[in-house]
Amino acid sequence: MDRNTFTGLFLILVILVGSTWLLKPSEEELKREKIVQDSLKNTAASKPAVAASKQAQKAAASTAIDSNLLKGPFGSARVASNQVIVLENQNFKVNISSKGGKIQSVELKNYKTYDKKPLVMFNENDTKFGLSFNAGGSAINTDELYFTPSAPALNVSKADSGSVTLRATYGPGQYLDYVYSIKGDSFKVGFNIIATGLESAITPGPLTLNWETVLRQKEKDLQNEHKYSGAYFNHADNEVDHIGTTEDEKKDLGADGKIKWISFKQHFFSNVLISKDGFDKGSLAVTTSPEAGVVKRYAASLVLPFKKQAVNSYPMEFYFGPNQFKTLKDQGYHLERQIDLGWGPLKWVNRVAVLPVFGFLEQFNWSYGLIILVLTILLKVVLSPLTYKSYISMAKMRVLKPEMDEIKAKVGEDNPTLLQQEYLKLYKKAGVNPLGGCIPMLLQMPIIMAFFFFFPNLFELRGESFLWMEDLSTYDSILNFPTIPLLGINHISLMCLLMTISTLIYTYFNNQVSGATGQMKYIGYITPIIFLGVLNSYPAGLNYYYFLANMLTFAQQFLIKQMVNDEKIHARIQENKKKPEGEKKKQSKFQQRMEDYMRQQSQSKKK
Could you tell me if 254 and 373 lie in one domain? Predict the structure, then answer.
């Protein structure tokens, strides 16, 4: 080792020793550090004890709560774990929750939503169902109780049936049972409430059955689904009424007798609760929710009588299924009356004539587009005598037009009363009824208007395609755009557009036949434009029917035109003019009234 290296190592050693001596803590600092370290050790040792103490406190509180619940009414049903029992047949899958003993969801197996998802009538988070009453000095709501099921999940085949009982125990020999049953080929779920041994436990007074649910969108057009959804109910006198189809409503029921059933109805599907003995009274409420994808919210409160007897039984049924006229009618209780087939005579046209013919045509297993075509042809054949009579009347008016123009030029337009008097004289001499073309058309109107209700409520069209129309039960959009304010239009329906064009063409040719002039000539062109906006969101099946009706009317008028000769009509009119008054056809009451009115107006002006 040379001298320089030794000198360097020596200096490093001196620095290390010097720094150790200079940085050595004092006695006071060592004592202070010892106190800090001892404190940290004590804190770490106390944490498990504190945690254990908190857990013990929570357990003690929980035990106290559970103990209090168990001592109260239906104590054994207050604390438990939820179970789901499944009742299933070929039509639906019903999930029943042990909490509340209620049906928490229903899925219809053979149908899908408009976007091809499983069709669930309502789900667990959207429904409440249970009895409310007082027992043992406490208010009881069975929706909060845990029922004990007596059977596992049931899958019932077509020819079989099955049932499950859920029980909430009050005490020894005292309990409340919910019994659910199904058949393999049914849309119904049997539901029986049986209260056993509770006559002294339940405070005297009626029981209230509460049912609330939210029904979500299942069809393409949510606005249309809003329009056809509402709460329906049936009194014991078989009168069916409804609320909530046009606006939010609440109604007290039972003033006109017992309530047989209530229905939470959507456009094409219904959730119905039927009481075989009837509910004493109750209330219904429907509200429209702004929430996306929600059709409406429903709530029902129904009163059941409770008697001081060992067993009180309340037999009921649920219907979960399609709003198909035949299917609903097969259930009994007039459930089919919740399908809106129109008012007054329109309803009976659909029930007595259209539905039976439509059902007959379905037997041939044709596509529904073809069935609508055949139905329209049959209707046009039945109405052809009226169409012929209307055409002849309009042809007579057309032949008389030159003479009417002469009268108008002679009398002038300054005296409309006198002008109408002269027209009436001409009609009387010619044996022509000016309303002859309108009356046959008016007689056809109930049938034409009946279809305005028939097709939008026809379940059979749901999901059925024809030509470019993917679903005949809703509109066939070819162009979508942002919603136009005030009008509320956000699409163009192709079939509605074709229907409008055909109506405009029909109006043009009809004016040629009738010889219409002036304002009457143009009014006919305005109406189809209005209907374009009105029917744009209506089912493609309805617009398809109106389009076919126009096309067949063109064909009818073409054939009639080949059979009708204007010269012969004119000759017949001239012969009528030459006939004595006694041989002429008697005036209609309307013509007589018009003539009397014109005479009175003329005399009044003279005075």
Answer: no
pLDDT of amino acid 519? 61
Long-range contact list for 426-431, CB < 8 A, 24+ apart?
A: 426/400, 427/400, 427/591, 428/584, 428/587, 428/591, 428/595, 429/576, 429/577, 429/584, 430/396, 430/400, 430/573, 430/576, 430/577, 431/573, 431/576, 431/584, 431/585
Name residue, tokens 């043992």: 136
Does 391 lie in the same domain as 497?
yes
Mean pLDDT of all residues in 488-499: 88
**Contacts of 87 by beta carbon, 8 Å cutoff, 6+ apart:** 93, 94, 96, 153, 154, 156, 162, 164, 180, 182, 189
Average pLDDT, the chain: 81
Quote the number of domains for the chain: 2
CA torsion sign, 522 to 524 to 527 to 531? negative
Q: Which residue has the tokens 């040719």?
A: 509
- Identify the domain boundary among 339, 365, 384: 339
Token pair for residue 571?
């000759």
Other Cβ atoms within 10 Å of 360 Cβ, number = 12
The secondary structure element, H or E, covering residue 234 is strand 230-235
461/521 Cα distance (integer angstroms): 37
388 and 471 fall within a common domain: yes
CA 556, 558, 560: angle at the middle one, nearest 5?
70
Residue with tokens 């304010």: 485
CA distance 517 to 413: 15
**Cβ proximity of 441 and 464 under 8 Å:** no
What is the extent of the structural domain holding 195? 75-339
Quick one: 289 and 411 in the same domain? no
| Residue that is last in its domain, among 310, 339, 368 | 339
Around Cβ 202, how many Cβ atoms within 10 Å?
22
Same domain, residue pair 237 and 138: yes
The answer to whether residues 122 and 226 belong to one domain is yes
Tokens describing residue 194: 């049986």
Same domain, 453 and 323: no
Helix, strand, coil in percent for the chain, rounding step 5:
45, 25, 25
CA-derived radius of gyration, the chain: 41
Q: Of the candidates 483, 480, 460, which has an alpha carbon nearest to the alpha carbon of residue 472?
A: 460
546-566 pLDDT, tens per residue? 999 989 988 887 888 777 776
The whole-angstrom separation of Cα 80 and Cα 86 is 19
What is the C-alpha separation between 267 and 470, in angstroms, rounded?
18
Residue 320 and residue 183 share a domain: yes
pLDDT of residue 60: 41
